[in-house]
Design brief:
The protein is mainly α and 45 residues long. It has one domain (1-34). 96% of the residues lie in helices and 0% in strands. The longest helix is centred in the middle third of the chain and has 43 residues, at 2-44.
Amino acid sequence: MLTFYALVHTISFALRLQEFSFVAFAQAVVLQRTDVDSLNNELTS
C-alpha cells in the first residue's frame, strides 16, 4: 500500500513538473515571438 502511494505521488509530481516545464516553454515561445515582432516593427518604422 505504501509503495502504491509512493508511485502515485511520484507520477503526480512528474506530471506537475512536466506541466510547469511546458508553461515555461510556452512563455519563452511567446516572449520570443513578441521580441521578433518588436524587432520587425523597429525595422519597418
